[in-house]
Write a structure and sequence with these properties.
Blueprint: H1 4-7, H2 17-24, E1 27-31, H3 35-46, E2 51-55, H4 80-91, E3 96-100, H5 109-112, E4 118-121, H6 128-141, E5 145-151, E6 154-160, H7 167-171, H8 179-190, H9 217-236, E7 246-251, E8 256-261, H10 269-283
Parallel strand pairs: 1-2, 1-4, 2-3, 4-5
Antiparallel strand pairs: 5-6, 6-7, 7-8
Helix pairs in contact: 3-4, 3-9, 8-10
Amino acid sequence: MFDYNKAFSRNIGWVTEDEQQLLRNKRIAIAGAGGVGGVHLLTLARLGIENFNISDFDDFEIHNFNRQAGAFMSTIGQQKVDVMEHMAKDINPNANIKSFPDGIFEHNVDEFLEGVDLYVDALDFFALSARKTVFKKCYEKNIPVITAAPLGMGAAFLCFMPGKMSFEQYFRFENKQTEDDQLIQFLIGLSPAMLQRSYLADISRVSFKEKRGPSTPMAVNLCAGIAETYALKILLNRGEIICAPRGLHFDAYRNKFVKTWRPFGNYGIIPRIMFKIAKRVVAE
């Protein structure tokens, strides 16, 4: 017999009993149910949050095995949102999960964000159009956004709060015409410190043209730890919130932690230099 208070009793101490009940009643939207998205959902479910909107149009495949929480031999070919909903409800049978198995677009983004207290970005790096759509709508609706990027064996984190610098103001896509240029702009904004670059062992495994790149399970788990800590702080309104244009980047392989700061976002001399260097690397 499931008992909510017993199931999440070990959270008490780091949160109060009243705070646990506050978390229980929050609703979180997560776009992407694969790598970081799947771990976000399960971590937040174990934190005791019961209400979720999740989206992903993809099915599990064998190449997902190295990092995705729902990827098993038994789930190959199954839809990611279905598998992850089942896993979350195996933690908390009372979980209220609304799935969007076709992905997020202009026509359903309002429904996806209805009643949401926090949006956790877990879209694929290359899903820039969907990401712009959701971030823009979150800004209009005053919904806080957190995004943690699994880079190498570390995690780069950004938070966008209502009334502060927006996604578009930070990344500055307006002067980049091609999709590849916008993806490079996205990368240098996500990772101003570029801590992961020095130990990439095989650059041929990174292809903007084929929309693929290497990944590690360690990075995905680090992302969940950082993002869900911020989710707790935002939802309970306690603890310092570092938001854009400031960010965090921790790389376990390099033994380094950097607090990043882009006061004008991707506008300025340093981002422009980084863009030119990254574009040359991508073209090789």
